[in-house]
Amino acid sequence: MFPTDYEMREGIKPGTTTPVFNTPFGRIGMAICFDLNFSEVIEGLAAQDVELVFFLSAYEGGRQLQRWALDYGVYVVSAHRGGVGIIVDKTGHVLQKGDGNYHPVVIRDLNMDRYIFHLDNNHRQFPAMIAKYGSAIHIDVCRPEAFFALESRSTEVSVADLIREFGLETFKEYMQRSRRLRKAALGE
After folding, report:
1. Each residue of 63-84: pLDDT tens digit?
2. Would the CA dihedral through 116, 169, 119, 171 be positive or negative?
3. Which site from 53, 91, 108, 131 is most exposed, i.e. has the minimal number of CB atoms within 10 Å?
4. Cis peptide, bond prior to residue 19, ω within 30 of zero
5. Would you say the C-alpha torsion 106, 102, 85, 64 has a positive or negative sign?
6. Measuring CA to CA, which residue among 56, 3, 4 is closest to residue 28?
């Protein structure tokens, strides 16, 4: 969407949309190089419930990739022309990083049945979920950020099933509800 100034001088046209594609393993989107500097790109992808963003670039991206993953609860997989690939999970943690010399290609299985939740209201359900599902689920609490990732490790139960059964509210839903409550309290 956002070519550099010199690319536009050379005739490259900016994009106007952030397409998301349904695949057998989830909803994917893409960003290219300079796009990483513009929140409009990740916001456009996130508004379409993207789960995995592929980032192709002439520069590595660094912590900006982690910020996108953390702020929007998406996996980010990058490929850099210098051979430094990186895979970032939905909590912003780097799962795998290559280097240009010995490991230019990074490969990692990703559990797409992994959602992000705020601890508020949801944490009270931990004992019941663990008692019922045990090792079929995994709860990754992120402190001091006060959120957690919940993933299913079984074909018998999905995170969507857990949301329904235990009345969980995703991080995104909680933030949307908080904004509505704030507006109502302000009389907007």
Report:
1. 999 999 999 999 999 998 877 8
2. positive
3. 131
4. no
5. positive
6. 56
Structure tokens at 122: 């949801």
CA 27, CA 53: separation in Å to the nearest integer?
9
Please give the angle made by the CA atoms of 163, 93 and 150, to the nearest 5 degrees: 15
Question: In Å, how far are 86, 88, 137 from 63, measured between CA atoms?
Answer: 11, 10, 29
Tell me phi and psi for residue 172, to 5 degrees: -60, -45
Where is 113: in which H helix or E strand?
none
Which residues pair with residue 99 across a beta bridge?
Answer: 103
Q: Report the alpha-carbon distance of residue 67 to residue 88 in Å, rounded.
A: 10
What's the one-letter identity of residue 19?
P
Residue with tokens 């992994």: 114
The pTM of the full predicted model, rounded to 2 decimals, is 0.90
How many whole angstroms separate alpha carbon 44 and alpha carbon 92? Answer: 19
Of 33, 107, 21, nearest to 65 by C-alpha is 33
Length of the chain in terms of residues written: 188
- Neighbouring C-alpha atoms within 13 Å toward the C-beta of 116: 21
Q: Between vectors from CA 102 to CA 74 and to CA 60, what angle results, nearest 5°?
A: 40
